[in-house]
Write a structure and sequence with these properties.
The protein is an all-alpha fold. It contains 9 helices and 2 strands, in the order H-E-H-H-E-H-H-H-H-H-H. The longest helix has 31 residues.
C-alpha cells in the first residue's frame, strides 16, 4: 500500500511534474540458512561487507538473481552459492568468453576474419535482445538472466560441435567457427550488462568494444581483440571451508 498508493500521492502533491512509477517490482523474503536474518535471533549474519571481501560483486549479483526471492521465499545457502558460481557463472559464461578469445588469438591471430557468422547463432542473438529485454521490462530478472546463460550454453555447444582446435590449419571452416563464437561473445557482453555490469565492462575491454548497445553487434573484419583474462575467480574449497567455519563459529 505504501509504494502503490501513499508514495505516488506524495509525489503528486509535490507539484514537480514528476514521472510517476508505472510498475511495482516486488519480491518475497530472502532467508539465510533456513531462517529470517535477525541479530536478535542470536545467529551470526553474513554481511555484505564480509561477502565482498571474498567474492566478486557480480558473483553475488548472479546468485541473488538466479536463486533470489523473486516469486517465492528463497534461502541463501553458501554451498548452493559456491556451486552456482563455479558451475554456471564460471563454467558456462566465463568459460565461453575465455575459450572464444583464446581461440581467436590461437587461430586468427587475435583478429576477426570477416563480419559474417553462423546464421543459426545470429538468429538466436537477434531474438535474445527482444526476449531478454522483455523479461527485464516485466521484472522477470531470473528468466532474463536464464536466457543469457542459455545463449552461453549454445556457444559452448557450438564449439564442442565444430572443434576448431582439432582442424587442420588449412581448413577455412576452422577460422569461420572461431569467428562466429567471437561474434557471439561480443553480444553476450552486451546482454549481461544489465545483470552483471562489472563483468560486462571487463569483457568489453577484452573484446575491445567501443561502447555497449542493446542491438545485435557484428564486429567488422580486421577488428582486433585483446588477450584473454579470466573474468571470474573460482571459489576454492579452502574458501568454502573458511566461510562455513566462520558461520558455525
Amino acid at each position: 500500500p505504501f509504494h502503490t498508493i501513499i508514495w505516488p500521492a506524495i509525489l503528486m502533491g509535490l507539484s514537480w511534474d514528476l514521472q510517476l512509477p508505472t510498475v511495482i517490482a516486488s519480491s518475497e523474503y530472502l532467508q539465510f540458512r533456513g531462517a529470517k536474518a535477525s541479530k536478535s535471533g542470536g545467529g551470526k549474519l553474513y554481511t555484505l561487507p564480509r561477502a565482498l571481501q571474498h567474492f566478486q560483486p557480480d558473483a553475488l549479483r548472479y546468485y541473488l538473481t538466479v536463486d533470489g526471492p523473486e516469486t517465492r521465499d528463497s534461502n541463501f545457502e553458501l554451498k548452493n552459492f559456491f556451486h552456482r558460481i563455479n558451475s554456471e557463472l564460471i563454467g558456462q559464461i566465463g568459460n565461453l568468453a575465455n575459450r572464444a578469445i583464446s581461440l581467436c588469438h590461437q587461430v586468427n591471430g587475435g583478429a576477426v576474419t570477416h563480419s559474417q557468422w553462423d546464421e543459426t547463432l545470429r538468429q538466436q542473438v537477434d531474438s535474445a535482445y527482444d526476449e531478454v529485454g522483455g523479461a527485464i521490462e516485466a521484472t522477470n530478472l531470473r528468466a532474463g538472466l536464464g536466457l543469457v546463460r542459455a545463449l552461453a550454453q549454445e556457444g559452448n555447444r557450438f564449439l564442442t560441435l565444430t572443434q576448431p582446435w582439432a582442424r587442420l590449419d588449412t581448413d577455412p571452416e576452422k577460422s569461420r567457427s572461431v569467428n562466429s563464437v567471437v561474434q557471439l561473445v561480443a553480444n553476450l557482453c552486451q546482454l549481461i550488462a544489465p545483470f552483471l555490469p562489472f563483468s560486462a565492462q571487463e569483457l568489453a575491454s577484452q573484446m575491445n568494444l567501443p561502447a555497449l548497445t542493446w542491438q545485435t553487434a557484428s564486429l567488422p573484419a580486421g577488428h582486433r581483440i585483446n588477450p584473454a583474462q579470466p573474468i571470474y575467480r573460482k571459489i576454492s574449497d579452502e574458501t568454502v571451508a573458511a566461510e562455513t567455519d566462520f558461520l558455525n563459529g
